[in-house]
């Protein structure tokens, strides 16, 4: 069994489309590390969740990247949405000749062990200082904090698209300004969006690897 560290029922439902009943929710508000890339944030969360639960876990982190802004807002997407709003992000992007963007998601898996070599990267946390003070403070027993390297397997899903003027009433976050194949995510039905979503693509990669690893 795998525990998915999330408080979002929608994410759990999407994960079960790829992992069936092998995945269960872990209601754990792990400390989120500030970093410039999604993989670092997700790997840190997976380590914290594993130390908390003591069993195999997955954590995901996702965001909108805009090429002309060097991948910004990326891992800061939620903060940028809350502070600037999607209209202002669009107004910044519309001035640019290149409005290419992408929704990206990284699923991070940790079970306390090492991993065999595959195309997907492994974050091995080689530096002791990578265990953040906030994570140490959240632990209630010595057993909840494991010192030393704790490998995390990473799986990335990407949906390329274009930043456009807001359209559509569905979805959430930056969905209204992200167009894929002529339709914004906010104009799609939930099932249609999930079928091509960045999280779904990352989960599909993880599910395929996990099925092979379990054999």
Rg estimate, integer Å: 18 Å
Tell me the CATH topology.
Maf protein
- Fraction of residues in H or I helices: 25-40%
Note the overall shape: globular
Low-confidence stretches: 127-146
Q: How many strands in all?
A: 8
The CATH C-level name is Alpha Beta
Q: Would you kindly provide a brief summary of this structure?
A:
With 215 residues, the chain is of the alpha+beta class. The protein has seven helices and eight strands, in the order βαβαβααββαβββαα.
Which characteristics define this entry?
215 residues; alpha+beta; Maf protein; 33% helix
What does this structure look like?
The protein has 215 residues and is of the alpha+beta class. The protein has one domain: Maf protein (Alpha-Beta Complex). Strands 1, 2, 3, 4, 5, 6, 7 and 8 form an 8-stranded mixed beta sheet that branches. Helix 1 crosses helix 7. The protein is globular. About 9% of the residues have low confidence.
């Amino acid at each position: 069994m795998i525990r998915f560290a999330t408080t979002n029922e929608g994410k759990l439902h999407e994960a079960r489309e790829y992992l069936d009943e092998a995945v269960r929710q872990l209601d754990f508000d792990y400390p989120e590390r500030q970093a410039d890339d999604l993989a670092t944030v997700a790997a840190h969360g997976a380590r914290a969740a594993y130390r908390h639960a003591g069993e195999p876990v997955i954590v995901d982190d996702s965001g909108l990247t805009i090429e002309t802004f060097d991948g910004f807002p990326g891992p800061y997407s939620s903060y940028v949405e809350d502070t600037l709003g999607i209209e202002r992000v669009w107004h910044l992007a519309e001035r640019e000749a290149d409005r290419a963007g992408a929704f990206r998601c990284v699923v991070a898996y940790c079970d306390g062990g090492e991993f065999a070599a595959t195309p997907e990267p492994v974050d091995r946390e080689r530096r002791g200082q990578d265990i953040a003070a906030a994570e140490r403070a959240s632990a209630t027993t010595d057993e909840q904090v494991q010192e030393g390297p704790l490998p995390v397997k990473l799986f990335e899903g990407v949906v390329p698209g274009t930043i456009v003027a807001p359209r559509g009433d569905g979805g959430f976050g930056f969905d209204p300004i992200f167009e894929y194949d002529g339709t914004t995510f906010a104009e799609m039905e939930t099932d249609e969006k999930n079928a091509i979503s960045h999280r779904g693509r990352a989960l599909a990669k993880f599910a395929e690897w996990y099925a092979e690893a379990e054999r």
